[in-house]
């Protein structure tokens, strides 16, 4: 399995993409997951892209963004085309988004119908470019639980639609990630790995906190020190022989040290492709 780091982990650090790439190379990490806003802000400097990243022995695993699914189709098309172009420039076929901004139980039938149509539109556009849309399993979206995620996949019914399986958020929904893995296995194209000290700390990942420079980081812990059993989960992924990548997500302090240690431990468990 190829392991990536996320540029979003460095969002509050005064580091350039050059420094992140060099550091990733020194650690033996295979790639970066590029935050959409970072890709957009680098788009005017053509020096940066897949060839430049390959010079460090790295690749772009995915571009992670937030497509405006509830906007008019013209806006959706424009945003999708921009991300598709950026994905080509950086050499990845995967674009991650959230499936709306309301939980599945709070979303009306009509709202859900419109979101499904928007996702179909995006998938049609990306399929024509040989790319994929990955909806992330995430609270306060249509993919906040396994059943709603499977229903969405069936409703959209498109080969370009895949799943970014966020292990922590699956656990947060009350389902054992190992069991969820078996249900979602045919659709999984990428994993997010992160952990938490206990269920009572989950609010630390609320968007209004986790993206804030002054937000709390209490409860964020290294991958193998938290409530989610990653030893068991990784063994199950190995048994399934699922050949997809994973990104180490870290939103707390001491980013390099934590990611170095997490990568080292994941590497021991996985037969990481060199």
From TrEMBL:
GO molecular function: isomerase activity; oxidoreductase activity
Gene3D superfamilies, per database record: Divalent-metal-dependent TIM barrel enzymes (3.20.20.150)
Entry keywords, A to Z: Isomerase, Oxidoreductase
InterPro entries: IolE/XylAMocC-like, Xyl_isomerase-like_sf, Xyl_isomerase-like_TIM-brl
Stretches assigned to the Xylose isomerase-like TIM barrel domain: 28-257
Name of the molecule in the record: Sugar phosphate isomerase/epimerase family protein
Lineage summary: Bacteria, Bacillati, Bacillota, Bacilli, Bacillales
